[in-house]
Amino acid sequence: MSEYIMNMETQKLELHFDKADYMALSEDLKKEVKSNFLFSRKYGAWVSRAKFPNLWRAEAVAKKIGLVNGGKSGETLTFAEQMERKAEKAEARAERYDYKSEKARDKAETLQKPINDMHGDIAFFTQPNINSSGGRAFTNRRNKMFSAWERGFDEFKKSEYYAERAETARQTAAGTKPTDKGFIDRRIKDAEKTIRAQKKNLESYRKKLEQIEQGKVFKRYDGTPVTAETVREWIENAELIIENAISKSIYYHECLEEAGGVAFSKDIIKVGYIVKIKKWGNCKVIGTGKVNITFEVMNIQGGVPLKAAYAEIESVVSDAVEIDKHPFKVGETYTVQMWSDTEQRRIEKEYTVTKITDEKVTIKSGTDRAVTKKPRKFRDGQGYSWAIGVADGIGGTIYKKCC
């Protein structure tokens, strides 16, 4: 039976149909199959280049050539098992490349042996071409030996190429489990973001399925109806994505623990601290959030503020906090441009500083309600300035030069 199957172990789509059916396809359909699948002798099927959840194009090709959905096969591997499998495959690749490298080197030595054996025979290399039967035979033989000797260099290059591929594969196998805390932390956040997004999708899909079962009609962009079966497939796919993301999150949490865990958080790191970040060296913390810190690199003048996760902090170099005090004073007035809904244009509006603290500024305009803002310090072309964002758009920010 001609069908397509989702292999849960590899997370890829497989096309199972006879060679005669493939040969009967049009050239355009053959090109589509080849661009989205690779034939695997191991599975005896065309295996998709893409993995779940990016199989919509491969599935569309499968349906276009007339295959039916054969369901799923195998069991889903945990992310840890997937990484172990990746390491095993990389090690197997390294062994294959080592074998190819040795074969190429042996062939190179065989090709160059006839010329190498003639070293020391000056007459062999210096004898001129003689236009006689024996002379021409000698010249042809010598030319073939030189040609083989030159081909030997190509084989040596091939041997070096396969040796490099083998080394790269071994590095892949050895480096499957990461130790960089920043990298691990980002992977955990990616997995958690995926879980949150798919949970929202699940809620939406289940609500839509309930409405369809009650008789409500939903249509796609092309006007075709969305069936209950289609929505159930969406739900199944979303659940599988969540399962994979949870597995990935567990794996990277284990990696993080093995790497020493996260030693720092917002409760420990304060604005003004000097911390060491692997990629940047010593950095000054200029902002702390729940997830990331904002910092300036100490040895870079005029650099822009950067962000890093708490997991990327290697150590605290200095906890001596020096708060940058803003230059705004009570009683100062500033004019900004605000959008007026009644006049349908931007108008000028005056704000007065009514209260200040070391970190925040309270401003008020006429009888409007007072607002409290935290000024931000930034580098300009000649030093530093401070800004208070009041309204969106050009002219909606208060600026004051500092030093």
Structure notes:
With 403 residues, this protein is of the alpha+beta class. The protein has 8 helices and 17 strands. The protein has helices spanning 19-23, 27-36, 56-64, 79-117, 122-126, 133-174, 181-213, 228-258; strands spanning 3-7, 12-16, 37-40, 45-48, 68-73, 274-277, 281-288, 292-297, 306-309, 313-318, 333-340, 345-356, 361-364, 371-373, 376-380, 383-389, 397-401. The protein has a 5-stranded mixed beta sheet with strand order 3-4-2-1-5. Strand 12 (345-356) and strand 13 (361-364) form a beta hairpin. Helix 4 (79-117) packs antiparallel against helix 6. The longest helix has 42 residues, at 133-174. The mean pLDDT is 87.
Quick recap:
This protein has 403 residues and is α+β, with helices and mostly antiparallel strands. Helices cover 43% and strands 24% of the residues. The chain has helices at residues 19-23, 27-36, 56-64, 79-117, 122-126, 133-174, 181-213, 228-258, and strands at 3-7, 12-16, 37-40, 45-48, 68-73, 274-277, 281-288, 292-297, 306-309, 313-318, 333-340, 345-356, 361-364, 371-373, 376-380, 383-389, 397-401.
Considering the chains and any ligands shown, give keywords for the structure.
5-stranded antiparallel β-sheet; single chain; 5-stranded mixed β-sheet; 403 residues; 8 helices; alpha+beta; 17 strands
- Rounded radius of gyration (Å): 34 Å
Encode the helix/strand succession as letters: EEHHEEHEHHHHHEEEEEEEEEEEE
The total beta strand count reads: 17
Average pLDDT score:
87
Number of contiguous helices: 8
* Shape verdict: extended
Strand content range: 15-25%
Largest sheet properties: 5 strands, mixed
Enumerate the strands of the largest sheet in spatial order, edge to edge or round the barrel.
Answer: 3-4-2-1-5
